[in-house]
Design brief:
Layout: E1 9-12, H1 16-27, E2 32-35, H2 39-58, H3 64-72, E3 74-77, E4 88-91, H4 97-110, E5 116-119, E6 139-144, E7 153-158, H5 164-176, E8 180-184, H6 192-208, H7 214-225, H8 231-238, H9 240-254, H10 262-270, H11 286-306, H12 312-322, H13 329-336, H14 338-350, H15 358-362, E9 373-378, E10 381-386, H16 397-412, E11 417-421, E12 425-427, H17 432-440, H18 444-462, E13 468-472, E14 475-477, H19 479-485, E15 489-492, E16 497-499, H20 513-521, H21 523-532, E17 536-537, H22 538-543, E18 549-550, H23 553-564, H24 584-592, H25 595-599, H26 609-619, H27 623-636, H28 641-656, H29 659-670
Parallel strand pairs: 1-2, 1-4, 2-3, 4-5, 5-6, 7-8, 10-11, 11-13, 12-14, 13-15, 14-16, 15-18
Antiparallel strand pairs: 6-7, 9-10, 16-17
Bound molecules: nicotinamide-adenine-dinucleotide (NAD).
Length: about 675
């Protein structure tokens, strides 16, 4: 077990960032101390949190009881001796290196020997603080984004002396508090600000050069990047001096290309607060503006990857998760085409005497490869990672093709491997939009092809000499849960959730789930899960044998690796009895009654509120889909798994060609309740 098992957190600085970070930690159920200079400042920070939570209750994001629980995890104090038993301290005080150093000196005196000390600095290097701590191996950067209680992105930055164990523990702690961590070198602006600050600054330069007025620049930037705010509106929201400071800092280290545009310098000198966003939009200037802003983004993103600051994938994740751009710089670059992207980047970089980054020069005609699924060797175990957190790693054709490639590579290594997701989901299912688009275009064959391909892949995943493990650290739904069922072992964090919501959208699990699930947990419980869409937490899933182990975040990787080093499972016996006494009534009920008996009211719930609720939920599902599931269970039970899986393919067209499928899928996309066809007896 790692000596850095992070259970208790502290945040130093109860300002905008610190209070939000503490709020998020407490919301995810972890104890956190919030520290500031004096009690008044602590109280101000606590009040920011209370106000935000109260607004959450008004907007029905939280129930009052939840807010009470969150607040009970938080303690505000100005007494630093209370930091003695804290495992991870996150510093979020003023952006002043001397203030930060004094904080770290004090932390080194007050914290225990295994405490990890993190800085949320935006503009200094992490290594600038090394001399202020007694144990540099326990110093790390955790760079959050505003608003840190809502924005999931965090850049995790080690300096040269950060120990790998500390890095891994800090990373795991961020997953435990629901963040999406990305790796960053200890470099100016880390990952996202490195290209985002120049993006804003390019708007300023376009204004200064008189290319267009400010309203036109904002309009064109929004259109070109598919974002909600242009650079000037954004500066007004986040504070113009912050943009000035950020560009100044990058410019001082990286050169003139990054320095603030003159129009920004001049504006700040006026002392005015906000840019005047009014003005007539001149649409004729769109191309001139879009090309420049895309060029800057392509140049800087490629440059930072060239320098080893971040990977292509993390650069894109940063934009999608941290900035909520609909596509990352490299996705946009590939969409624009490599030739054009090179020209755009060259045009902006060339005017500062800068050369094209090597990766842009060397890119082939297909552009920059983006590994939506990656494979890495970690201590002799392969880690196959799904890298699309903004869509919860939903499976579409591109993901499947990449997964296929990595699966073959992983098998070729002759080593066991672990599947894991980035962000808050393992894999949240298949890409619903792809289904709806295909149905709307009457392109059923695209769906059949997708499902056939997925089924084949999952079958390949299931067969193999070396063990495969699914690491569930968040949501595993639908296709994601089916993928996990195709691996030998499933290990989950305590907050993982697993479920099969297919009948809610008029279909059935078509990637092996209808046959693998009952073989793993027994037919009655499989019926219960598929018919009602009931999600299971990790502990309940463990109690019925759906998963094999539950481990805290700090131990999750090590636990997955130890399962991976076991042998592959030969055959699992289908359970014939219920292993969780709390689910015995459910087992008996679904063992005894058919879908029609349940829905027509013939089945006897014996006043059991749990069963009554299950029946009610079944009434909200697609009857057509329920009947298909039932038929698959009945027929499949008598067949070998290989043959049983063929039944799914056979019934796929029946499911997708039914009106309930298009209704269920559309309703999900539109965020409304589906209106399914009712059974004759309803
Ligand atoms: N604001 C952002 O969008 C953003 C984003 C990422 C990172 N950051 C970084 O986060 C840090 C904090 O930024 P902020 O916007 O929350 O600042 P802020 O001014 O809102 O809050 C800073 C807090 O630190 C407290 N403080 C100052 N010196 C202290 C000390 N010696 N001990 C304890 N508390 C002390 C202050 O009283 C204040 O409450 C900065 O390093 C900033 O660069 C900010």
């Amino acid at each position: 077990m790692s000596q850095y098992n992070i259970k208790k957190f502290a945040v130093i600085g109860a300002g905008n960032m610190g209070s939000g970070i503490a709020q998020k930690i407490a919301t995810e159920g972890h104890p956190c101390i919030l520290v500031d200079l004096d009690d008044e400042k602590v109280e101000r920070g606590m009040n920011i949190i209370r106000d935000l939570l109260a607004q959450g209750v008004e907007r029905k994001v939280f129930r009052p009881q939840q807010v009470e629980n969150i607040l009970s995890n938080l303690r505000g104090t100005s007494d630093w001796s209370e930091l003695a038993d804290v495992d991870l301290v996150i510093e979020a005080v003023f952006e002043d290196v001397d203030v930060k150093r004094s904080v770290f000196e004090r932390l080194s005196k007050n914290c225990k020997d295994t405490a990890i000390l993190a800085t949320n600095t935006s503009s200094f290097y992490v290594r600038d603080l090394v001399n202020a701590v007694t144990h540099p191996e326990r110093l790390i950067g955790l760079h959050y984004f505003f608003h840190p209680a809502k924005n999931r992105l965090v850049e995790v930055i080690g300096h040269e002396g950060t120990s790998p164990e500390v890095y891994a523990a800090a990373w795991a702690s961020q997953e435990a508090i629901g963040k999406t961590p990305i790796w960053s070198a200890d470099a100016p602006g880390f990952v996202v600000n490195r290209y985002f600050v120049p993006w804003v600054n390019e708007g300023v330069r376009l204004l200064g050069e008189g290319v267009a007025n400010l309203a036109t620049i904002d309009w064109a930037a929004k259109k070109a990047f598919g974002v909600g705010m242009g650079p000037f509106e954004l500066m007004n929201v986040t504070g113009v001096p912050i943009s000035m400071h950020a560009a100044n800092t990058l410019g001082a280290t990286l050169g003139d290309f990054y320095a603030p545009g003159q129009a920004l310098v001049d504006f700040c000198a006026t002392g005015e607060r906000n840019w005047d966003l009014e003005g007539e939009v001149d649409e004729s200037q769109y191309d001139a503006i879009a090309d420049r802003m895309l060029g800057v983004t392509f140049y800087v993103a490629s440059k930072l990857v060239d320098e080893g600051v971040a990977s292509v994938e993390d650069t894109d994740i940063g934009a999608r998760v941290g900035l909520r751009w609909p596509a990352g710089p490299f996705e946009m670059l590939n969409n624009a085409g490599i030739e054009r992207s090179r020209l755009l980047a060259e045009a902006v970089a060339g005017s500062y005497g800068l050369h094209l980054p090597k990766m842009l020069v060397n890119a082939g005609s297909h552009g920059i490869p983006i590994e939506l699924v990656s494979l890495n060797d970690v201590h002799g175990v392969g880690e196959v990672r799904f890298n699309r957190p903004a869509t919860m790693n939903a499976l579409d054709n591109t993901m499947l093709v990449q997964f296929d490639g990595k699966l073959q590579l992983a098998r070729a290594t002759g080593k066991p491997f672990v599947l894991r997701g980035t962000g808050k989901a393992f894999v949240a299912g298949a890409d619903i939009k792809f289904f709806v688009d295909s149905l709307n275009n009457d392109n059923y064959s695209a769906i059949a092809e997708f499902a056939g391909y997925g089924q084949k892949l999952f079958a390949t995943l299931a067969g193999g000499e070396h063990a495969t493990v699914s690491r569930l650290h968040g949501l595993a739904l639908g296709g994601g849960a089916e993928m996990a069922l195709s691996t030998d072992y499933i290990v989950a964090s305590p907050n993982a959730v697993i479920g099969f919501p297919e009948t809610s959208i008029g279909i059935f699990p078509g990637l092996g789930g209808s046959q693998r699930l009952p073989r793993r947990i027994g037919y009655p419980l499989a019926k219960y899960l598929l018919y009602t869409g009931q999600m299971l937490d990790a502990r309940t899933a463990l109690s019925i044998g759906l998963i094999d182990d539950v481990a805290d975040f700090a131990e999750l990787d090590a636990t997955c690796h130890s399962w991976a080093k076991k042998r592959s499972v030969e055959v699992r016996e289908t359970p014939t009895a219920c292993s969780n006494p709390k689910l015995q009534a459910v087992w008996n009920f679904f063992d005894q009654y058919s879908v029609d008996e349940i829905l027509s009211g013939e089945a006897d719930c014996m006043g059991d509120p749990g069963l009554e609720k299950a029946v009610k939920r079944m009434g909200q599902k697609s009857y057509h889909a329920l009947k298909l599931c039932e038929a698959l269970f009945v027929e499949g039970a008598h067949l070998e798994l290989d043959r049983a899986l063929e039944l799914e393919s056979r019934d796929l067209s029946t499911a997708f060609n039914h009106a309930d499928a298009i209704e269920g899928l559309s309703a999900l996309l539109e965020g409304r309740r589906p209106n399914f066809q009712q059974p004759a007896f309803a």
